[in-house]
Design goal:
By secondary structure, the protein is mainly alpha-helical. It has two domains: 84 residues, Rna Polymerase Sigma Factor, Chain: A (Orthogonal Bundle); 85 residues, Arc Repressor Mutant, subunit A (Orthogonal Bundle). Helices cover 71% and strands 0% of the residues.
């Protein structure tokens, strides 16, 4: 596929989108919290991939290269505007993915799964941007530590540090919900 992308083969670009599109959209929507802007970032990323593919050296994997472009475009947008995340419920990643939350009747109602997921989304949204990016790439998109490091342009140790701090913050914020 890389060779075809280097030749600016539009069919290869379509294949790339079919393969990586869901991860690109998820990353952009998670960082921007605005569907329209996220869709614009994904479209812009595809144009950039098409334009820059002939110079792609392959030092990083194709997936990390593309996701790094998405993350950088999101950062650019966030720097240009005042970030207003809105309510996390407005971007329901489970509903978008076609998943449904159906608590089991025997559960304690205080541990309602949908409530916990919404609280988790709000808590992730309050993380500092660098921690939020690491959590989304590693825990939501399932990238390896090395892929997260390549995508963000940082060292693996920095990724692990950001994830540790983020997870500790999330544990503290969600502790009351899980105990209550």
């Amino acid at each position: 596929m890389i060779a075809r992308l280097r030749r600016r083969d539009l069919a290869a670009l379509g294949e790339l989108y079919r393969e990586l599109g869901p991860a690109m959209v998820s990353l952009a929507r998670s960082l921007l919290r605005d569907r329209a802007e996220a869709d614009d970032v994904v479209a812009d990323t595809l144009i950039r991939v098409h334009d820059k593919a002939p110079g792609f050296r392959g030092e990083r994997g194709l997936r990390t290269w593309v996701l790094r472009i998405v993350a950088n475009r999101c950062r650019d947008l966030l720097r240009r505007r005042r970030f207003d995340a809105g309510e996390p419920e407005s971007l329901d990643p489970l509903a978008h993915a076609g998943l449904r939350v159906e608590p089991i009747e025997s559960w304690d109602h205080a541990l309602d799964q949908e409530k916990a997921l919404k609280a988790l989304e709000r808590a992730i949204g309050r993380l500092p941007a660098e921690q939020r990016e690491a959590v989304i790439l590693r825990d939501r998109l399932g990238l390896s530590y090395e892929e997260v490091a390549e995508t963000l342009g940082i060292r693996v140790g920095a990724v692990k540090s950001r994830l540790f701090r983020a997870r500790e913050t999330l544990k503290l914020e969600l502790k009351g919900l899980l105990e209550g």
